[in-house]
Amino acid sequence: TPAGAATQLQLAKGESGEVGGATVRFVGFDLEAGGTNALAQMTGGGMVTLGARLEVTHDGASETLVPLYKFNGAGRVEAPPTPLPGGGQVLLTAIDATRGTAQLDFFGLPGGGAGTPARLSVDVTQKPLIQLVWYGLYVVLAGGILATGQRLREALLLERLGAAKGAGKGSDGG
Q: What stretches of the chain adopt beta strand conformation (E)?
């Protein structure tokens, strides 16, 4: 996670919240934020891009921002940061479509102090029985090679027997 002071807001459509001296109002979801329709992206099976349309008022000036949330069916999620007027960044980190809410994380806001340090979360797993799967694969491959060799030998033997029978009829004269 990025370093800096983190503030989190969960807003429903039309709700506002205060963060870092700015007022943030969640206008609604933007299904066209990625350049193509999110519903069309879902049927295509690729990466789906949704946006949350925000109206940010800072020092009397309003600006519309659209932080993005990208995901696919395999569970891959991306939430690129969007710069805020007056400093800092906002990330759209979760969407609850049934309740119509968006979870927004704000980082690097002015006056945030030292903030939270950067964190890295790593999941290291060890699968000790995976060697059995590989050994099984080797046994299956060896069996396939032996069976193919045996079938080839049988085919050559049948070919020789057929050639020998054909040669035997020709020398008999009749």
A: 6-12, 16-19, 22-30, 48-58, 61-65, 68-71, 77-78, 82-83, 89-96, 101-107
